[in-house]
UniProtKB/TrEMBL annotation:
InterPro entries: Archaeal_lipid_biosynth_FwdD, Asp_de-COase-like_dom_sf, Formylmethanofuran_DH_dsu, MoPterin_dinucl-bd_dom. One of its GO terms (molecular function) is oxidoreductase activity. It comes from the Archaea. This is Molybdopterin dinucleotide-binding region. Residues 3-102 form the Molybdopterin dinucleotide-binding domain. It comes from Methanococcus voltae (strain ATCC BAA-1334 / A3).
Length: 128
């Protein structure tokens, strides 16, 4: 299914990053995709299912979560971090920070692939 992806900070992502990027807490806070409940039904996914998000810049597997507040149909959100980095424009324009906070066209599909811990994700990104 086609979606528009937004990224940004969340309270939970910010709290978890302080605890440690190599912890399950960080994965649960940042390796997630918030999605409108009706879109989840159309995609055939439930809270906690793994989905693959694919953009022109790359792909990543994250867990889907129903938005707590109503979100526009066709719009998804992934918190800033290594998982979002895999699907946003990699050009940092000399800032060393990927370009977040802009809608990016993505495809999303249900998957049986594993959601990786941050260390596994980094190894995959830089070794393969």
């Amino acid at each position: 299914m086609k979606f528009m992806l937004n990224t940004g900070r969340t309270i939970w992502q910010g709290e978890a990053i302080e605890a440690g990027k190599n912890l399950e807490l960080y994965k649960k806070a940042a390796a997630v995709c918030y999605m409108n409940g009706n879109d989840m039904l159309k995609l055939g996914v439930r809270d906690g299912d793994a989905i693959e998000v694919i953009s022109d810049y790359g792909n990543v597997v994250v867990n889907v979560i129903t938005t707590k507040e109503e979100a526009p149909a066709g719009m998804i959100f992934i918190p800033m971090g290594p998982w979002a980095n895999r699907v946003v424009l990699p050009d940092t324009e000399s800032t060393a920070m990927p370009s977040f906070k802009g809608p990016i066209a993505v495809d999303v599909e249900k998957t049986n692939k594993k959601v990786l811990m941050m260390t596994e994700l980094m190894r995959q990104a830089y070794i393969e």
